[in-house]
Amino acid sequence: MYRSTRPWKALKVAGLGEKVLRQKCRLIKDPTSDEMQDFAMNAMFTCIRNNAFGVSAPQLYRPIRMFVIRDYSTVPDPSQLSAEQHMSLPLMPYFNPRIESRSRKLMGEFESCLSDPWNVAFVARPHTIGISYIDGFGKYQEKEISGWEAQVFQHEYDHLEGKTMADMCTQKGLYMSKERYKRCEAYWKKVENLPDFEALAKASQLLSNGGYWGPEAEDSIEPEDLNIDALKSQMRMFLQFYDKDVDPEKLTKEDLKNLAERIVYKLQNPTDNVSSESIEGKL
């Protein structure tokens, strides 16, 4: 990118409910123009001022296909970085980005967003994607990205399509306030006796109705690629809906496995009004 002689400035961020966040953004004719280069620099400065992983043009009231995100190309495992280390990474602009391919394998993380600063949402996305874009020097680029970098890229890409993390959240109960998220952390730390991943993930998928995570995604996600806190949070919801009087801290691993299996059975057989005892007898 060229060096602007004009001072950088933090731009106003659009909030949920504003029309610009629902528009499908248009292509940029000349990413190397002074206007676009200045806008990209101001977008990066806005990220810096807000301690953000990235920001898209529509979030800054420009319905154009461009966003900036942190550069993870030199980081072997971004999931091991502290918040401070994430924020110390340089930012890169992506003009006219495209997702050319998506892996069947999924990953999932809780996401946050500058346009929805009070909430977080658990979103499962393709673990690896092939992308193309115009870089800050006006050169066409292609590459494959995975893991955390792919998660961030897809979050910002959704904004260019008029979608938010709330739209892509796998389950309504996993779109929550940051305050509730912090309260859940205390619960997560106490839940150690999780059932085997397959039983829990199956129940999770059947309860999901958003994004890429659902019954059709069976066998496409591995334990190491899913934020385990999300599954623990779902177990808490399972207990609220199916065994309200049970203390989760006293459940054994086998108890939780049976609970997950009962949920799977109930969701797969919605017209079968049998009791929990007879359900367990069928498993």
UniProtKB/TrEMBL annotation:
One of its GO terms (molecular function) is metal ion binding. GO terms for biological process: translation. SUPFAM superfamilies: Peptide deformylase (SSF56420). PANTHER family: PEPTIDE DEFORMYLASE. Its EC number is 3.5.1.88. It catalyses: N-terminal N-formyl-L-methionyl-[peptide] + H2O = N-terminal L-methionyl-[peptide] + formate. Keywords: Hydrolase, Metal-binding, Protein biosynthesis. Pfam families: Pep_deformylase. Belongs to the polypeptide deformylase family. It is an enzyme of class 3 (hydrolase). It comes from Blastocystis hominis. Removes the formyl group from the N-terminal Met of newly synthesized proteins. This is Peptide deformylase. InterPro entries: Peptide_deformylase, Peptide_deformylase_sf.
